């Protein structure tokens, strides 16, 4: 049968730390994904409690491998695992190498705790959590991949991701193309603040760098201000229309013999 994650797990206790705390380490044999539970009483009740928490998150494995300690051989734990369909295998007595996966991790965990040098339980608990975060993201020497990639099919996000996800800004050098803006303020006699219409960013520029446009933007869309129905005006030619006097053509004749007289009258408008 093809081995996969969550099929066989190894468990072991280590300690004491700070003279009273013990750690239950549970490792997945395929991915090397490991969980650590701290307690002051390494008994079968706590073992069942820790495994129940683990199974509720990751599912029930097919096989559990442990040593022959009393915290693993208790009958209530045996019947509980059998009821879940998990086969419990014990290693050979007085032969820790039979549970090599858990033993190797226990040595690594002890080395990490010694480097942390915890003083309080808070230091111990926080140090183990930080260690597990880095351990699950580091490539394993046997599998060649990190436990997170094999167990979760992804890498766990850490604060180191902030190094590669910073906002990148590209600056264009010697870009002399003109852009349209609006002068929003003056800084002295020769400096102005210009608001770029494209990027909505403000820049300080010298007046020699700015080409001012006297026309307002509203001039580009001039509208006809004349009324749609203008008032009719009388022509000047009609206002001073000459009137012919046919009854007395010679009374005011000035044409020298033509007999025609032109009278001009101004009509009021």
TrEMBL record:
Residues 213-224 have a biased composition (Basic and acidic residues). GO terms for biological process: DNA integration. Residues 213-236 are annotated as: Disordered. Signal peptide: none annotated. One of its GO terms (molecular function) is nucleic acid binding. Residues 1-155 form the Integrase catalytic domain. This is Integrase catalytic domain-containing protein. It comes from Opisthorchis viverrini (Southeast Asian liver fluke).
